[in-house]
């Protein structure tokens, strides 16, 4: 079997499993410009309380820190755009959290892809999906599956940005894909639409201001500046993706495990008011929402303006 055959077989198997895009990048040091930009973001404290982001700089610089003989990053994207939205009159959750926890779904699919790869050629592989300190969106751009927008999301041309991204580091040497030569151009819609002015001109997000980060990662009180702009958002924020022209023609995901959980669709403002810890644990046991914890979700609920739900 030639290298080209293996490349094509892996790509086709990724699409057969349900991924929307798959590409390959050679493992090497991250571009100095990208790494320096990230260092400056950390130094400015824009990562808020996410101190874990300060660690494992060596792995961020080169993913061989995770798999020493790694030759290729296989990058994949999975569509999570829901086939139906939550009722507009209910508190709103970010789309990515409508269904089952993406970590589990991505791990299951990536493991199937690893088994397929190892059936083609013996190699070591390491799976990542928001579970390792690597620049996932950067590697996705190197693997040619999209570009990073000013809203800091990976944007796949003609498909949009409602995608989970994941990687397989492998000791196989696959043919690198060609990065796309595309960017946001003169568009600034996400910058203008962000209710917190959290997006800088250079596309970096200030997590201290971002509603998504604050409603999910903050373990203390929400800043008043955030609560004033919550609107109907109780978990996460999709505004900078909703306004992006690349999301005008998104297709709904075909992955049923990502469809809205039935119990989530029933969470009205009043229903949430009386949500017990036991009910939270039952509803969100297999959901990414459990990251906010019961206390965090109820804190967010109490910061909502009841008049918006009358
Ligand atoms: S998620 Fe919301 S608050 Fe955060 S940068 Fe995007 S629009 Fe702004
Ligand atoms: S809204 Fe415009 S500037 Fe923002 S990510 Fe989309 S294309 Fe880029």
Based on secondary structure, the structural category is alpha+beta
The strand count comes to 8
Helix content: 25-40%
Query: Largest sheet, if any?
Result: 4 strands, antiparallel
Q: Count of DSSP helices?
A: 13
Could you report the average pLDDT, rounded to the nearest whole number?
96
Q: List unreliable stretches of 5+ residues.
A: none
Anisotropy-based shape: globular
Strand order of the largest sheet: 1-2-7-4
- Strand composition percent: 5-15%
Distance between the termini: 65 Å
Rg computed from alpha carbons, rounded to a whole number of angstroms: 20 Å
Task: Encode the helix/strand succession as letters.
Answer: HEHHEEHEHEEEHHHEHHHHH
Total separate domains: 1
Q: Compounds present?
A: iron/sulfur cluster
What would your notes on this structure say?
There is one protein chain. The chain has 310 residues and is α+β, with helices and mostly antiparallel strands. Helices cover 34% and strands 11% of the residues. It has one domain. The strands form three sheets. It has a four-stranded antiparallel sheet, with helices on both faces. A two-stranded parallel ribbon has the order 3-8. Strands 5-6 form a two-stranded antiparallel sheet. It is globular. Bound molecules: iron/sulfur cluster (2 copies). One iron/sulfur cluster (SF4) binds next to α7 and α9. One iron/sulfur cluster (SF4) binds next to α6.
Give a short summary of the structure.
The chain is an alpha+beta fold and 310 residues long.
Features:
single chain, 310 residues, alpha+beta, four-stranded antiparallel sheet, two-stranded parallel ribbon, 13 helices, 34% helix, globular, binds iron/sulfur cluster
């Amino acid at each position: 079997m030639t290298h080209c055959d293996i490349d094509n077989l892996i790509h086709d198997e990724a699409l057969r499993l349900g991924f929307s895009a798959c590409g390959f990048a050679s493992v090497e040091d991250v571009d100095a410009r990208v790494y320096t930009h990230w260092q400056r973001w950390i130094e400015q404290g824009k990562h808020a309380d996410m101190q874990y982001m300060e660690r494992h700089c060596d792995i961020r610089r080169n993913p061989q820190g995770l798999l020493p003989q790694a030759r290729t990053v296989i990058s994949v994207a999975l569509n999570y755009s829901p086939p139906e939205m939550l009722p507009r009159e209910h508190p709103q959750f970010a789309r990515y959290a409508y269904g089952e926890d993406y970590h589990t779904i991505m791990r299951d699919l990536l493991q199937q892809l690893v088994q397929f790869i190892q059936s083609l050629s013996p190699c070591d592989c390491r799976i990542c999906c928001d579970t390792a300190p690597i620049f996932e969106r950067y590697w996705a751009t190197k693997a040619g599956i999209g570009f990073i927008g000013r809203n800091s999301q990976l944007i796949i041309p003609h498909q949009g940005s409602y995608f989970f991204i994941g990687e397989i580091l492998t000791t196989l040497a696959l043919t690198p894909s060609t990065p796309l030569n595309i960017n946001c151009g003169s568009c600034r819609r996400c910058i203008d639409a962000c209710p917190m002015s959290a997006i800088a001109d250079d596309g970096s997000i200030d997590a201290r201001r971002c509603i998504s980060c604050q409603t999910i990662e903050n373990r203390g009180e929400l800043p008043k500046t955030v609560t004033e702009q919550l609107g109907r958002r109780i978990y996460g924020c999709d505004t900078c993706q909703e306004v992006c022209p690349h999301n005008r023609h998104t297709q709904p995901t075909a992955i049923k495990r990502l469809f809205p959980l039935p119990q989530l669709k029933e969470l009205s403002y009043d229903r949430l008011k009386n949500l017990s810890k036991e009910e939270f644990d039952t509803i969100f046991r297999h959901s990414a929402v459990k990251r906010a914890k019961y206390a965090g979700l109820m804190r967010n609920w109490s910061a909502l303006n009841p008049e918006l739900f009358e």
